[in-house]
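The freezer alarm interrupted the setup, so I double-checked each line after restarting. Inputs confirmed:
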Amino acid sequence: MAGTIAWQLATVKAVRDETPAVRSFTLALPEWPRHRPGQHVDVRLTAEDGYSVERSYSIASEPERGAELDLTVERIVDGEVSGFLHEVVVAGDRFEVRGPIGGYFVWEAPHGGPLLLVAGGSGVVPLMAMLRHRARAGSSVPTRLLYSSRGADEIIYRTELENLASDGSGLEVLHTLTRSQPPGWTGYARRIDERMLAEAAEPLGIGSRVFICGPTALVENAANGLVRLGLPAGHIRTERFGPTGT
Amino acid sequence: MSERFVTRGFVGRRGGADDAGTGDDFHARTPPGQYLTNDFPVLSAGPTPRTPLDRWSLRIEGLLGSPIEWTWNEFLALPARDWVVDISCVTKWTKLDMRWRGPSVDTLLEAVDIDPKAAFVVAWSDGGYTTNLPLADVLNDQAFVAYEDDGKPLTPEHGGPARLVVPGRYFWKSAKWVRGLRLQTKDEPGFWESLGYNNRGDQWREERYTGD
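Predicted 3D structure, all chains:
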């Protein structure tokens, strides 16, 4: 078995806004074992008096970038760590990171496809690592991303997704906007439901590998819906975050 | 890195994202690297299995005289008690004073004749999930099989109809949708234990990942 996953000191190379509430941080690490798309890291912040907190964040970048990785962090209301990352951290700052962590919610090009990705909000982050890796690896595995956001300005990676979907590699991105739609919106305009799942999944067939990430209610609905549509439960991998609602 | 690096400008809120508690008692009950929450987040690796209760059973097998299997109604008839315990998930949340109801693992094991060579337990679940524990870690009221959470039937998302609960370990050891316990002489890493997570998972030693 591997040794300890040690804490190391990451240096922030760049900070960029993805949406009003979502920001990406490019980190340089002293030593980074190649991660697998879908894995996450732990971040630890420590105050001068020794008080410290840890959180887990999905890696947004592809492993081909070597000892540099992107974390995309949504600002949570009153979030102790996300608030600090958004308000205080600038390029040149350093904080502790350890990883990569997690070995199940991962996809690498040799795994093949077809690939069906379902995301809600910032749940797109680990799926983006898969899509970026797919592009860098030159994979043409038929892939569809069904991505639910509340409004157009909350779509993370919107331009990059458009570019990836137009490079001829066989990626299609289907957006749904659940709260508000801009004039002329041609995508879906409701929460993910069984009909939408059927339309997203059907062209790929029931042999797809499925990765679903988002708030619990979305993940439950999407996973249960796909099982009812006949996709084998064993091909559906999920990652969830956020409160249960009730 | 043994010394922790002080993060520029970080003061912290000391109460956690949900501010579920700031008192000394709460602080003392929060394992290292964890934050308190009032939510009950859901985590699982795949779709939620749904086995009808008339097809549900709980089985104890492995190194013992003869295996035993309870139907749902037989399981509910076992001596049960209320439990109030603190739960810590490896994803960093800790929830204090969670109320559960169900029989202790001791109660279940009283029904079988355990071979003295049995030293480990593998819990297995609907959907194929497994997790491993030393037998010593689930005896003496350290573990139970819950069918109620906060006075209500355990929902499928949270592992219903019944889940193992081992409060002294990270929550992935508390197998959702549990259907059986297998007693063995040898340890056998379960699902997450084979995917980079710690074999023991003691939250007070912060045994999150392999090698911790």
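Quick read of the result. Chain A is about 20% helix and 35% strand.
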